[in-house]
Design goal:
Residues 312-397 form the Alpha galactosidase C-terminal domain. 26% of the residues lie in helices and 26% in strands. It has 409 residues and is α/β, with parallel strands linked by helices. It has two domains: 17-297, Aldolase class I (TIM Barrel); 306-402, Golgi alpha-mannosidase II (Immunoglobulin-like). The structure holds alpha-D-galactopyranose.
């Protein structure tokens, strides 16, 4: 009898460990990550000032939560194998830093790697997964970005499952951000493993370019966007496609930053800012804190948007939203303005994967321009607009009264 009880308890414990920590990312995670702007130049002062700026800029109130330190925070492992932060850059230690971030009403994230070394050559978690997860939990970590450098001989699915189980065993709710660049099709296996998975290699701070590092490449915003093709069916509440952290505020033109933010919102992508929050222009702050655009990204249905049409680099995208609303985003990829003319009566917009239909013949939708923040007519009239170069027109469609009166009985 005692043996059976033990067996049942063990089985219960194992199932509990194997569970991804549910309900942690029911909408795409929002936050900031150090890598895109600061690379290895991270220290506790930067992190504290970034937390301050996230509050002062209104970003926290707009929904941003996580402050994530990417690569290079690490010092050495001690004689028992416990990892410590770089004592010069983080003299107060990670627990104190996490406490500071938490006191601001924010959450704290950190970075490691499934291999023996991180991409920046710091100690990785291979063979130390459970020990590291315990350490992170003791520091108060809420989010782990887990990279894929130096993983020779490892299988991605298994390696990420190990860290998932280690995080679960730590007893602390920790978001697991899978960063293996889409190499092993994580969308096919990661739904119960992590909360988000990178779909591509690294983003590069340009609208439309490829940067060749020799042995690997990084990708402009348009290249990353195109690589999302076919992946939307895998995303949903708790498990998101991650087209990488944003480059908004890192040097592209304002209209390009706006289009970048709009498209990441249409993709239900994690909104992880990658700029210096302490020194933002007004334009950058307004882009990152546009609550109407964020509401499209954070919509509770969690359906990733899709490209509906593409004519001469003027793309029309749609995203079904809760309560029968829709988002529409018209993206002009060209470097000259383009005219849009969209006659609703000539289009049948259908989401065949999530089974939704935009019924403009039955329902008249009100249009709201979420960048201009003003009403913009209804679907009763052909939508006409000039879309500037490398920019978007982004609308929220809300159903109003029926287009036709019901016939009298
Ligand atoms: C990889 C990741 C990046 C960043 C660096 C850090 O390239 O894809 O996002 O974390 O490593 O070294």
């Amino acid at each position: 009898m005692r043996n059976i009880l033990c067996l049942l308890l063990c089985l219960f414990a194992l199932t509990a460990v194997a569970q991804k920590q549910k309900n942690l990312a029911l909408t795409p995670p929002m936050g900031w990550n150090s890598w895109n702007k600061f690379a290895c130049d991270v220290d506790e002062k930067l992190i504290r000032e970034t937390a301050d700026a996230m509050v002062a800029s209104g970003m926290r109130d707009a929904g941003y939560q996580y402050i994530v330190i990417d690569d290079c925070w690490h010092g050495e492992r001690d004689s028992l194998g416990f990892i410590h932060p770089d004592p010069k850059r983080f003299p107060s230690g990670m627990k104190a830093l996490a406490d500071y971030v938490h006191a601001k009403g924010l959450k704290f994230g950190i970075y490691s790697d499934a291999g023996w070394k991180t991409c920046g050559g710091r100690p990785g978690s291979r063979g130390r997964e459970f020990q590291d997860a315990q350490t992170y939990a003791s520091w108060g970590v809420d989010y782990l970005k887990y990279d894929w450098c130096n993983t020779e001989g490892l299988k991605a699915e298994g390696a990420y499952m190990t860290m998932r189980d280690a995080l679960a065993a730590s007893g602390r709710p920790i978001v697991l951000s899978i960063c293996e660049w889409g190499d092993n099709q994580p969308w096919e296996w990661a739904q119960d493993v992590g909360h988000l998975w990178r779909t591509t290699g690294d983003i590069y701070n340009c609208w439309d370019c490829v940067y060749d590092h020799g042995t690997w490449k990084s990708w402009g915003v348009m290249q990353i966007l195109d690589k999302q093709d076919g992946l939307r069916k895998y995303a949903g509440p708790g498990h998101w496609n991650d087209p990488d952290m944003m480059e908004v505020g890192n040097g592209m033109r304002t209209n390009e930053d706006r289009a970048h933010f709009a498209m990441w919102s249409m993709l239900a992508a994690p909104l992880i800012a990658g700029n210096d929050l302490r020194n933002m222009s007004r334009e950058t702050r307004e882009i990152l804190t546009n609550k109407e655009v964020i509401a499209i990204n954070q919509d509770s249905l969690g359906i990733q948007g899709f490209k509906y049409s593409d004519q001469d680099s003027l793309e029309v995208w749609f995203k079904p939203l809760a309560n029968g609303d829709w988002a529409m985003c018209v993206l002009n990829r060209k470097s000259t303005p383009q005219q849009l003319s969209f006659d609703w009566s000539k289009h049948a917009v259908t989401d065949t994967i999530f089974n939704r239909q935009l019924e403009t013949s039955q329902t008249r939708y009100k249009l709201r321009d979420v960048w201009a923040k003003k009403a913009s007519g209804t679907t009763a009239k052909t939508l006409k607009a000039e879309v500037p170069a490398h920019d978007v027109l982004m609308l929220r469609l809300s159903s109003s009264k029926p287009a036709k009166k019901a016939a009298k009985s």
